[in-house]
DUF3857 domain-containing protein
Amino acid sequence: MKLFSIALLLSFFSISHSYAQDFEYARITGSDIELKNTQLDSNANAMVIREFGTTAVQLDNATGKTYIDFEYHVRIKIFNKEGFNHGNIVIPLRIYRDDEDEIKELKATTINIVNGQLVKTELDKKQVFNEKKNKYVSLTKFTMPNLMDGSIIEYSYRLHSPYIFNFKTWEFQSDIPKLHSEYIANIPAIYNYNVSLRGAQKLTKQNAEIKKECLMIAGNKIDCSKMTYIMKDVPALIEEDYMTAPSNFRSAIYYELSDYVMLNGGKKSITKTWKDVDYELNSDKSFGTQMKRKDVFKELMPQILGKASDDLSKAKAIYNYIRKNIKMNGFIGIYSENNIKTALEKHSGNTGDINLALIAALSAADLDAEAVILSTRANGVVNNLYPVISDFNYVVAKVNIGDKSYLLDATEPLLPFGLLPLHCINGNGRVINLKKPSYWYDLKASQKESTKYVLNAELTADGKLKGKLTTYSLGYAALKKRQRIVAANSVDEYVEKLDEQMPGISILKHSIENVDSLDNTLVEDYEIEMKVFDNLNADQSYFNPFFINRITKNPFNLNERTYPVDMGAASEERITMIIKLPANISVIDKPKDMSMALTENGGKYLASTSMQDDSFVFNEMLQFNKPIYESEDYLSLKEFYSRIIQSQKTDIVFKKTK
């Protein structure tokens, strides 16, 4: 993704009631009917033929308030049944403290060719449903009627939004290709917006024109600007493994209100400086005030600290206390929902309650604690050009001990001290300090995802492999396994599910150590048995040694990827097998030893097989040293995986010698 600011030095802004650039509703052309997906993307199940949108700032004469007026119109071709899901329409509406977005003039039509005749089916308004997603967003939903292969669907609506700070975002790119996407932004001269264009795709055309006296407020005639943006032949943004929020990479235009001119000639700034934001957060009753609540923990501190004497031990004791005593209620946010005292009493709270309580408790022990506000991976990147508090949806703690800093999130009961959950590893966070100016902080994983498998086994004369498999997991690998163990309700049930997932292997006995000791390696010991030979009398038998976490599907399948491969953390997996062979069995063929590496020490893959006395020894290692690989590395990663998959198809060939 490329993010850059478009400088709109507008001494004028515009409103236009003429939407001449829009296309006529439900007037289908022959080219629409004959359109094939081969025109742009032969893999597409649906395609946008044309879409048009326009946004304006209007005045509500009844209330005297300005509002955002957005009109949307789209025509889509459905090529096959796999594209029917694009007939399920969801329109998100924002809910504000005292008002909310409103849909008006909604109409929708499905057009089919039946026996050579054009058949139009209108949406029944009774089939439009409203659903409240959460306290900030509601959804208007409907399904296009009478869908079939080759349907053309078309719908339009007008959206009334009472909040002009976020001028309507326009997404040129979606999960299906678009032939033509056009957007007109009509902005009054009294408003100045910061505008940014994200994504890899380029505009086909953009145009600006002045319109005189397009808006009248309190008898004042205001000039306007009309900005037109067109993008043609837009490829679909295909979501793939190892990506953060798709909104980070879609080609789209974003607006944030910077300032506006009042009718008396004065200017009011909306876009704040970080100094302004620091003051607001530190004085906010649901943020800074909660960070200062050391009194909540004053009497509890001797109980919490126990025998901890050094600062690191104190920090760990406090982290463990908060982690165990306030459970996540399912809601995230940077602010406390009620207050940290209530959360502690009820043993429940949102992310703000839990981690602001953690900061207050650390401060009560005279430790240097700060708050870090961030945007989760699913929420998208934050704007680094100017503060936009609505970009941030999560808060964690930062404790500084000596020359080292630790990022802490007490909302996840299975996280070891100093490790953030992967959903928090997303670019930069902003550190909020009660006494010092805020600053950016790079959010990096403090540990990698590390797993080691050791198998000591014997191949018996009856064609079975029997032995002990030990797995050592650290970092995110251990976190994921502990989460699965907890989800299974017990270790025994976890092992039962594991046994079911490996049909060729039977787990005879098991033991798992350090399930609750989060700072230690999670150790799993399994006594296993698996069938190797199907035909005991055959001269030759085959065994694939890549049965542990064998890669059967390449996670990278695009011809080109315009966004990074973001794994969140470095990773390493090692596998060692020592298998004793019967006296009458020898190895006559084996997979070729393999060693390959990514450029710039990005990672490597090693696989080797050798004989040691009466045993064959197999070693394999897959290592990724970077949490993020740029789009330029994509084809190398794709080829890297492709070669691993081919290598892992090769068997060891055993031969009877007697």
